[in-house]
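USER: Fancy drafting a protein?

ASSISTANT:
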Amino acid sequence: MKNIYKPFLAVLLSLHLASCEKIVDDLNVDPNNPTDAPASYVFTGAQIANVAVQEGQASRLSLVWTGYGTGVFQQYGTWYAYNITASNFDDDWNNVFTGANKNAIIAIQKAEALGNRKMAGIAKVVQVNSLATATELWGDIPYEEAGRTEEFPNPRFESQQELYPKLITRLDEAIADLESGVGTVGAEDIHFSGDANNWIQVAYTLKARLYMDIKQYDAAYSAAVQGVSTYANSLYAPHGTTPNVNQNHTFSLLTDVRAGSITAEGAYNAELLNPSNSIYRGNAKTDETARFRYYYLENGVNAPGIIEPNTLTTSAARGFFAMDADFPMVTYQENILTLAEAALRSGRSLDVALGHLNEYREFLNMGGYIDPTYQESATLNYEAYVMADFAAGGIENSDNISQEDALLREILQERYVTFYGTHLGWNDERRTRNEAYGIKLQPNNGDQLPYRFIYSQNELNSNPNSPNPAPSLFDPMYIYQ
């Protein structure tokens, strides 16, 4: 995970060395610990750190705790069985609060001092993306006092009841900044090169995600209406093919760092998508062959003869976790499926909800987010559903539940299979765990499913304001009760 910072730190170091006019200048300055940098560099650093947040344990533990994959040995075999300690979360906690949040705060301050509202607005979206992920995973976290080390060396933890309205307000501030048209951002924005419209849409989809977390479905729908409107406007983490520099993080994990430690044997998501499995979700209108092959290898590279996550990186086959595969962070997929679920839950008509689901199915039918190599080599079909398909005895209601519940069940299952590889599927599973319909997982070990990450051991040791006693892996948090 630390490798992603190397190019950024190298730039900061070269800037510092270039500023020395004499060999005796600044003898007491440590060149390995720069104390300042231009706004654009700190801004980029915040974005890179946020990528590390989204692709770190947020993705990897969700992979093995949410039925997307199976931990079989090494660390992930142990963690799959929920045997994990607070120290295992030190790096990810640091990525959020020292990496993404603190750099975002500094970037915002510098941008506002320069009158660059566009940069400030983007940095606020990045900050909320990171902190929203943190509270979804850990629960109560520091916010207003976080990142202001000199003033607040021991930041106060804020409850989710306090925090969610503040994060939503922060996104409103970001949207106002971006809509102002004041300021410029270019290549220092690694995602959109400063395109304000794209960032505005991402901010609205993030607002919708936060409202979904707290089950304010009408507000979620209203936000998503202004959210990411096309696949091209989705927020992805860019990746390349240079080892230890810009490769997809999970590719590196699965092929090098922990090769073979995560498979997909018995993984619920793989079984749903596998046409040869008894619980295959396909039907006369749905062929999941292409998506299954894009996600999984039936004869693994790292575990021959075993189903495993797809890391193939060739001209003929590029898996979801290919070496240079961009990673989904805030997407059109999430936004349109939020419209579908929120429409149904907020009292809008079943036809409106089905319309959004069918809009998404049309997107998939055209290839969607599935790599073209699998669109060409495997079949896919997502014919539009009609309301009769969800009536008792319909192809999506063989167990004769209510039409509304059958439609909700299909939307939740579509969200689950779509959110493969990210923590969003775990968000949904926990949010709907106590409801009649949703993704119903069996514990990997024992008789309890985990609800949260454990707080960082470093934070517990150093911050007297940390929760005491610290909640366990299985203690529910406010938003998922």
Residues 245 and 365 are 35 Å apart (CA to CA). The longest strand covers residues 327-330. Residues 1-29 have pLDDT under 50 and may be disordered.
